[in-house]
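Reading group handout, session on sequence-to-structure problems. Before we discuss, look at one worked example. The prompt was deliberately terse, the way you'd type it at a terminal:

> structure 3-methyladenine DNA glycosylase

The input record follows.
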Amino acid sequence: MTSPTPQHLEPEVWRAREAAHEARADALTAGWRERKQRGESHAIEDFLFTYYPTRPARLRRWHPGVGVTLTLPDDVGTDLPERAAWRWYRLDGGGLSVDVAAFLADREDTVRYVRDLLARTAARPANVGCFGLHEWAMVYRERGTRHALPLRLGPEGTDAVVDSHPVRCSHFDAFRFFTPEAVGLNKLQPTRASQPELEQPGCLHANMDLLKWAEKLGPVVPGELLLDCFALARDVRTLDMQASPYDVSAYDLPPVAIETPAGKAEYSERQRGFAERAGELRERLVAACDAALGSTTLPSHRPTSAERTPS
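And the output record:
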């Protein structure tokens, strides 16, 4: 691996990117923040904030990525930007950049695991024949539900759909929520250990998980990429619930009735579209990992209080 070509961004450039990022993040999280203030919930959109969990403040924090120095004005004095105190940042020569060596000292195993998982997933063909039955298997032969929504076909109708379709879920974090009666119906028996061998790019949950991996990679992921992963996850989650056994009409969403030929066709078509979007993001995340791992020779430097004032 080679180190990324160093870049220097002038204050007016990186401040504009930072402001645009913050505005986009605020727009993406507005619904969640407003509902929190009112004490309300949303069975579809809240998933991204309660399951992963994502935080608006974390999404709002813009990072330039590896190999980019944010130049400071000559007259900055001691009035440094807030990010000068952020974890895994360094001040050197009048500019701020991600302290890659410090980050890898804390998270190198994570970076290598994520890089391997994403690259291996990307190398496989997309399987678009599961029809979202994972959500159905999570309520199979149970009279309770995981979400505060009614079942579109009722309990018996839901069970009948599962009984009449092959279940082939490859995603461990979906499979682990299957009811006991549904576990044995799955053609695969994924485990955490087998995750790198089984994940495939057509899986809705594997593509939503790009948000999780982007967050775990912290400052080595450019802010724009993080928000692209969030936007994809939000769109994927909508299909995930439209194709689920739940009645989502309360949210003005039509069902994707995967028990019908038309529903199956719609699900597969949209699944392919998400696989294509996710493929581009997965490639960018792998590149971010490579940029970090290729920078392992960079010295870790934590400036003293005297060094924090550029000459």
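Points for discussion. First: The first strand starts at residue 7 and ends at 9. Second: The first helix runs from residue 11 to 38.
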